[in-house]
Amino acid sequence: MKRYRFGLVFALWGMLLYGAIDAMRSATGPMLQAQIHITYTQLGTLFAANSIGYLLGSFPSGFVIHRVGLKRTLFIGSIALGAVLILIAFPTAFLMLWVAFFSLGFVMGWLEIAINAVVPAVAQTPRAESSGFNLLHGFYGVGATLFPTIVTYLATKSGHWSTPFLDVGVLTILAALSIVQYRFPNLAGPDRKQSGVTSAKRQQALTAPLFYALLLGIMLYVLAEVGTATWLPTYLVHAEGMSLTASSWYLTAFYLTFTIGRLTGPLWVHKLGSYASILWSSVFSLVFFGAGLVVPQCPILFVVSGFGFAVTFPTIVHLASQAFPGETGRVIGMLLTFSGIGSIFVNWLVGFLATKVGINVAFWLIPSSLLLVFVSTLAARWLDRTPLTSAREASL
């Protein structure tokens, strides 16, 4: 673990950066819409372009990592990410913006597989891996918590929505140069010898109904999380008449509770169990988010719901990683590919529904997705009845 400490530190930095970029895209949405003069549907199309790029970038990345290694994937991806963030600041025509958002998504999808793969590569036990995933994705929340107000300040002070993208792009390239002098682990993951899983059994696992239940669960969860992260400021500005600054503070507060949930996840997820943690988290976020829509005078309810969003994503990734040892890169690649599908769907659908029936109605897509996460998790728990699963859960 100590030998590859920088690898884990860089992964944490990378996930913090992802939270910052997602918050940046969301917080600048209303200003982008006003300055480029586009509709909800067109704004949703830009967000969907980002998700389509993410989907196409994430799918091959897991296979490439196994061939070229983590270090090369992280270095090339980081340099490309910084370059795209800089370039996205210049287009003004809608078509060029679509291409820029697509390119940003492609690079982010490519790079995130490698960032996630660092955790099982350095973890020594299943419990350490579970804690590592929650810590890693907790840093996503740190970035998403800190950046909305910073982004709003930079954008309003400069007078243009794209200024934060330029600044973060330069910072990303500078950080990427530090990779050259450090060693990174191979993608072998934690000690898999105790699992007793043969290559043939792994192939059977990849076609198991359990895996597809987990894929469905993560897709539905991402639909809810991305829908909230991307559209909450726009919802608060247009449905509840908030200022852009106030809406960015609510997004910051949402990510604060979200981050608290992820950083404290290692303290309670293994006590409740992986499936129970997802089920209770889904109910929690469903109740509070739905209440926020029913009682619009209390937007603080959206903030509270963030705690329930916290552990679902990393816990699903952990379950799949443990279920299919030795195939970590490919498994994570498929999981994040399906999460990209959910992101594409929600970004387009919320924008479309908001244009047709109003954003108040469109936002009900979020609690509906959370309900379906609960159902798919129940299905996955029912399917997950193998002796290997019982041994895994006992070790957590």
The helix-and-strand class reads: mainly alpha
Cα-atom Rg, whole angstroms?
20 Å
Helical percentage? over 70%
Q: Quaternary arrangement of the chains shown?
A: single chain
Gross geometry: globular
- CATH fold group: Growth Hormone, Chain: A
| CATH superfamily grouping | MFS general substrate transporter like domains
> What is the H/E order?
HHHHHHHHHHHHHHHHH
Largest sheet: none
Determine the number of helices (DSSP H or I, runs of at least 4 residues).
Answer: 17
State the total count of DSSP E strands.
0
CATH class type: Mainly Alpha
Question: Uncertain segments of ≥5 residues (pLDDT<50)?
Answer: 188-203, 386-396
Question: How many structural units, i.e. domains?
Answer: 1
**Average pLDDT, all residues:** 82
Q: Could you tell me how far the N terminus lies from the C terminus, measured between alpha carbons in angstroms?
A: 19 Å
Beta fraction = under 5%
What is the name of the CATH architecture?
Up-down Bundle
Describe the model.
It comes from Alicyclobacillus fastidiosus. It is found in: Cell membrane. Keywords: Membrane, Transmembrane, Transmembrane helix, Transport. Belongs to the major facilitator superfamily. The chain crosses the membrane at residues 44-65, 74-94, 100-123, 135-155, 161-184, 205-224, 275-294, 300-320, 332-355, 361-383. By secondary structure, the protein is mainly α. The chain has one domain (2-188, 199-395): MFS general substrate transporter like domains (Growth Hormone, Chain: A). It is 81% helix and 0% strand. The protein has helices at 5-27, 29-36, 40-68, 70-87, 94-122, 126-158, 163-176, 199-205, 209-239, 244-272, 274-294, 300-305, 312-323, 328-357, 359-362, 365-383, 387-395. Helix 4 packs antiparallel against helix 7 (163-176) and helix 11 (274-294) packs antiparallel against helix 13 (312-323). The two termini are 19 Å apart. Mean pLDDT is 82; it is low at 188-203 and 386-396.
